[in-house]
Amino acid sequence: MWPFTSRRIMGNRWWAIAFVIFVCYQAVDFIGAEPSADNSGNATMTDVSGAPVTDDQLRQAEKSLKSL
To answer: Whose CA is closest to 19, among 8, 30, 29?
Structure first.
């Protein structure tokens, strides 16, 4: 998958600098990505079957998790 070994990349300072720049670019690109519209706070929560989850069910799940 990656054509270079770590010894070969870090053996040349220019390859090391290019590798660090690439890793930083990938991190900024990943973190700076816009969240999808489905992750908005006003989206309706659903269970595995797709049925909407009521507030009582959420409270019951929270209570069960706190008891662990």
So the answer is: 8
Task: Read off the tokens for 19.
Answer: 């590798």
Average pLDDT of adjacent 10-residue blocks, the chain of 68 residues: 60 83 88 63 75 88 89
Q: Note the pTM of the prediction, 2 decimals.
A: 0.37
In three-state form (DSSP H/G/I as H, E/B as E, the rest C), the secondary structure along the chain is: CCCCCHHHHHHCHHHHHHHHHHHHHHHHHHHCCCCCHHHCCCCCCECCCCCECCHHHHHHHHHHHHHC
